[in-house]
Design goal:
The chain is an all-alpha fold. It is built from 20 helices and no strands. Helix 19 crosses helix 20.
Length: 517
């Protein structure tokens, strides 16, 4: 009598409540990632209504990212402190309230306060979505949840400008924030229905890495302000910049002290000594610069040079989302079968090529000049981000996966913050430089210059109008050259970090996607 083979164990399946919880987490992450860039294509309109200059307007985007960078590493501790459902309900409710504050803002100060509040609360919604996937779905179904989350994380920053642009053109820029009210209400309802209540553990307050928390806020906050305001304040000739630099330095020292004295540091910087994880952090920082920097710079170029409205500019940015949507169903298979080093190297090469395509912009360039580069950028982003996320989680022991996920997500947003601050600095410097160089080529005594001026005087009916016309032409050409410089810098930055892909170790063949939380 032959031994009967044991029947295979039935595959575990998630129930409806678990999928509702995943839907809640994904909706929260989508809302948070959308609001990173939803103002980008509407910034010229918002700046005009609240009385902010172009350089000051970058704060509307940067304030959100900086606040997110600070809160993301804290999310794991806050989950344990309040319980996951209570923490998410607080985050969703406050995010909605801060969105309303942004929507009714009449000054730059009000807007920045609202955006900082959005960043603190919205940033908590991103890593907790991965926690829900990891804890509520069986391992066999986690790739589906991870694909849903990956789609929101990649689509949010590129869908934001087109949604914000449509609302601005058809309703008002205020509705780019008011739209969070019904979404927030739906999210809170899903959380109440699908998430089980867990008791708070307020005793963890005494165990927190307060040195690291305070140092993180002082260090990153001070550094970002220095980068944003340094050019306008003439750098270290300003006492404000000097004091902010000191605040930032003290903050980073406190963060370093927390690594030695805290039982569980807010950011476990020791993970950076891991060659693979350190390489991933450097690469994802640069990729973050590309994602958030281009989603900010392209709408600004199209508005200033091509005369596009908010919706038209947002539609161009959204093009990079098309490859994300098409490729997302195949990413679990790609991760199981393609060597991670080849994938990341290929993705970085495509990103570098997409940025290089935008270095030949002219004053007559329009949205069509960005079609090919945006589609390629979407392809490169999928190959980079999906694989780098897996590499970050698998490069550390399982008990440190949440620390790695927090540091990974903070690095991505930090890259975006540096990109936005850097754009403001470079734009001021290069615009001045290119304007002077163009003026140097126009000798007032040259016959062709005099003939051109005379023709403009006759056509416009006055010398004053003619000179303003010439000045406007110089500024437009200089601004175009400045944007080309920005894309050159991104191209070179990507090329410099590309060799780090060689430090990555292949993922286990046939292994399911890792869930970072």
């Amino acid at each position: 009598m032959s031994d009967a083979e044991p029947a295979p164990a039935p595959e575990e399946r998630a129930d409806a409540a678990a999928w509702l919880a995943v839907a809640a987490g994904t909706l929260g992450a989508l809302m948070a990632t959308l609001d990173i860039s939803i103002v980008n294509s509407s910034l010229p309109t918002i700046q005009g209504e609240i009385g902010a200059s172009g350089t000051e307007g970058t704060w509307i985007a940067t304030a959100y990212l900086v606040a997110e960078i600070i809160i993301i590493p804290l999310s794991g501790w806050l989950e344990r402190l309040f319980g996951l459902r209570t923490f998410l309900l607080l985050a969703a409710g406050l995010f909605t309230l801060f969105s309303m504050l942004c929507g009714v803002s009449t000054t730059l100060t009000m807007m920045i306060i609202g955006r900082v509040g959005q960043g603190f609360t919205g940033g908590a919604l991103i890593p907790t979505a991965m926690t829900i996937i990891a804890t509520r779905l069986p391992r066999s179904q986690q790739p589906i949840g991870n694909a849903l989350f990956g789609a929101t994380a990649l689509l949010g920053p590129v869908a934001g400008p087109v949604l914000g642009g449509w609302l601005t053109e058809n309703l008002s820029w205020h509705y780019a924030f008011f739209i969070n009210l019904p979404v927030g209400a739906a999210l809170i309802t899903l959380l109440l229905v699908a998430m089980p209540h867990k008791r708070s553990n307020l005793a963890l307050i005494a165990e927190a890495d307060w040195l690291g928390i305070i140092g993180l806020a002082m260090g990153l906050g001070g550094l970002t302000v220095v980068l944003e305001e340094g050019e306008r304040e003439q750098w270290f000739s300003s006492s404000t910049i000097i004091w902010l630099t000191i605040v930032s330095a003290v903050g980073f020292m406190l963060l370093a002290a927390g690594q030695f004295f805290a039982r569980r540091p807010v950011i476990r910087l020791a993970l950076l000594r891991n060659r693979q994880f350190g390489s991933v952090v450097v690469m994802v920082t640069v990729v973050g610069m590309v994602i958030y920097g281009t989603s900010y710079a392209i709408p600004q170029f199209l508005s200033a040079i091509a005369g596009y409205n908010s919706l038209q500019a947002g539609q161009i940015v959204m093009l990079s989302g098309a490859p994300v949507i098409l490729m997302m169903p195949f990413t679990p298979w790609l991760i199981r079968t393609v060597d991670i080093r080849l994938s990341v190297a290929f993705g970085l090469t495509v990103l570098a090529f997409s940025a290089w395509l935008e270095t030949d912009l002219t004053s007559v360039s329009d949205g069509s000049s960005f079609v090919d580069s945006q589609l390629l950028r979407g392809v490169g982003t999928v190959f980079c981000m999906m694989f780098l996320n897996q590499a970050a989680i698998r490069s550390v022991p399982a008990e440190q996966a949440s620390d790695a996920a927090g540091l990974y997500n903070a690095a991505r947003n930090l890259g975006g913050s540096f990109a936005l601050a850097g754009i403001a600095v470079i734009q001021d410097q290069r615009l001045w430089l290119h304007s002077r160089r163009i003026e140097e080529t126009l000798s007032a005594n040259a016959i062709n210059v005099q003939d051109y001026v005379a023709g403009q005087v006759q056509a416009l009916g006055g010398q004053g109008r003619a000179m303003r016309m010439i000045e406007g032409t110089i500024q437009m050409q200089a601004l175009t050259m400045t944007y080309s410089d920005l894309f050159w810098i991104l191209t070179v930055g990507i090329i410099l970090v590309s060799p780090l892909a060689l430090f990555l170790r292949p993922l286990p063949k046939g292994a399911p996607m890792a869930a970072g939380h």
